[in-house]
Amino acid sequence: MQLMESIDSTLAAFEPITLGEMDSVALMNRTDTKFVFRSDQLPGFLMQVVNDYKILEINGVRASKYQTLYFDTQDFKMYMEHHRGKPTRYKVRHRIYVDSNLHYFEIKFKNNKGRTIKNRIKKKEVDYVIKDKAEQFLEEKTNFSAQSLFPKLWSNCSRITLVNKFTKERLTLDINLQFKNDTEEKNLANVVIAEVKQEKLSPSPFIRLMKNNRVRAGSISKYCFGVIFLYNVKKNNFKPNLLFINKLNDNKSIIKPEYI
Predict the structure, then answer these.
(1) CB 3.0 to 4.6 Å from 14: which of 4, 55, 116, 145, for a disulfide?
(2) Domain that holds residue 142
């Protein structure tokens, strides 16, 4: 509770920006740079960039709730392509922006130039079977059929979204991470996943801050975390990432040994 109060107090220091004002930084075709660090580091990091970014505020909320249902094949083809380091890969998901009550069926594609391309269509509610307009959209954008994909897990979090005041850049900070399926649930309350989104890789106050604090960039995704926690899958290529998270927590095992 004290940590969340500290984070909330720090967020209050940022100048706000509305959802409508963010249209210019939608960045549906972009480069992504990810970082993972302890949640107790977040207030200090935020205070060092308060003059560089504005914060998204929706109905007075500055840490918005996100709920994301991920789809994959029965044998986790999308997860395994990430695990193998395949340069071109997809993620298929239904995302709920809880505070603004928006639903989207989304497809993310990582190309062989390291760019992330996101396409999406609006939905009214969650469908656990990909059908109708979503099915047509899937087949237009990917090589997957709707019949080959199944809901695998929910990835939920609170997201802080910062917008650079001077350049075309967004920074998202995901906290209170939760992963669950029909039988299990895993919470990562002590971890922050930060993602810098830019048109092209360029100087960034947050990336500079991370380098100064020796926080290394990483490539593991929230979906991959969830699969590792909830399913018995191959994960040896992610072992350095998982060990690194435990090291962040002074080796107090945020990630239990059985997941590594």
Answers:
(1) 55
(2) 2-259
In whole angstroms, give the CA distance from residue 127 to residue 109. Answer: 21
* Cα 203 to Cα 52: distance, rounded to the nearest angstrom: 12
Can you list the positions of beta strands (E) in 73-149?
A: 89-97, 102-110, 115-123
How many C-beta atoms lie closer than 10 Å to residue 62's C-beta?
21
pLDDT tens for 87-131 read: 999 999 999 999 889 999 999 999 988 889 999 999 999 999 999
Structure token digits, residue 91:
């993620």
The helix/strand/coil state of 34 is strand
162 touches 54 (CB < 8 A): yes
pTM: 0.91
Residue 159 and residue 172 in contact, taking contact as beta carbons nearer than 8 Å:
yes
Q: Which residues pair with 172 in a beta bridge?
A: 161, 195
Q: Which H helix or E strand runs over 29?
A: strand 29-38
260 touches 247 (CB < 8 A): no
Q: How far is CA 153 from the centre of its chain?
A: 14
Q: Which helix (H) or strand (E) holds 245?
A: helix 239-248
Q: Which residue has the tokens 């997957």?
A: 144
* Tally of domains within the chain: 1
Q: Which two tokens stand for residue 94?
A: 């239904």
61 DSSP 8-state letter: B
Other beta carbons within 10 Å of 12: 10
